[in-house]
Design a protein that fits this description.
It contains four helices and no strands. With 96 residues, the protein is mainly α. The model is unreliable at 13-17 (pLDDT under 50).
Amino acid sequence: MAKTKKTKQKKPAKTAAKKDIITKNTAIGDVVSKYPQTAEVFAKHGLHCIGCAIASFESVEQGARSHGVDAGKLLKDLNTAAKKKKSSGHQGCSCC
């Protein structure tokens, strides 16, 4: 009787980059509430209405589109800021 070889199943490759914290579908209000340091990023990109009523349900993509902002660049900058250590409040930012 011939021996059969067992083949090992390959495990999926792990990706080095972590998934983004903030996505295009994340509400602007949730972003600023959870990551106050992102307020300056929104302001830098021309989205100065982070505290308005619409921000509580409008997504990052919707806000970017309505203000003529590149959503991809905004998301990149937001995720970079969100991954940095949280500051206490908006001290030192240009939004207040």
